[in-house]
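Hi there, hope your week has been kind to you so far. Do you reckon you could talk me through the fold, stretch by stretch? Thanks so much in advance, here it is.
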Amino acid sequence: MRDGFRVLDTQLERMKHKLVRLEALAENGGVPEGQAPKGQAYILGRMRELHRKHDELLSMVYRDLSAWDVVQVARHPKRPGLTDYLNLIARDFMELHGDGLCGDDRAIVTAFARIGLHKVLIVGHNKGRSLSEKRQCNFGHAHPEGHRKALEKMKMAEKFGLAIVCLIDTPGADPGAGSEERGQAKAIAVNLKEMSRLRVPIICVVIGQGGSGGALAIGVGDRFAIMQYAYLSVISPEGCASILFGNSEQSSVAAQALKLTSSELLELGCVDTIIPEPLGGAHRNPALAARYLKKYILTELKSLSGCDISELLDRRYAALRDFGGNMVRR
């Protein structure tokens, strides 16, 4: 990351420690030594000043992020993932397991749930939090059985007339030999074909990493949005740099060339909408990020609920065929 990010982390950490100490003093009714005459008013004023400086510093650094910076924000270890958002925006959650063929891939979660008043099927990538969970989820790299599980549950949602919400957050589909032997490429291709003609509304949102075929496997829908500091790319910057330059040290250059940020993707016609994030990224205020996400989903569910399904399918197919059309026309 840029030097500005390293300076930011150091300064924010210092501010955080000061705020924690001041909050403890405020709760206990104490004051800093030598400041007794100013009492509680001094503490509250000092806290307001630190909060102001904190926000100014965040605004300064996040005002002009490079593409590589955005990649690092999207990969932040504290960035909210699928399970975090589900706890914040969904209720009556009932997870569905297995692909009906060979297993249950933990990298893909499928579940019936309610978002607001809407009954939906949620499909999303799960990268896990602890090291044990990450291993169980293969760090969010879905296997072919995960993609088949997603499609099987989507077809179940179609039978019940339920809208589908896909939350995308994956470095990419699993590239291992075992996955290739079990039909990884075909599983992704079949999902693209079948999702294009499912007769229910589909909303897709990139909430973190949108890596290659893994993202596309659950990324065909009537609305395609991306969160402000998420990214979508045909290949990782490191992989691109290794191919083009022979090493991954040029990842920042590759990230810039890939046009993977939300603003670039909107300009190129690869996404419909950018969902805003709290100042400094979703990891700094997951609850607020979840409110933004929920508001977008509810708005689009309401918009799509009254659409004629034949017209919906025609528009979905046309959008899929014209994916990135602005880039071609340029």
In short: The chain has a mean pLDDT of 87. The chain has two domains: 3-64, 72-329.
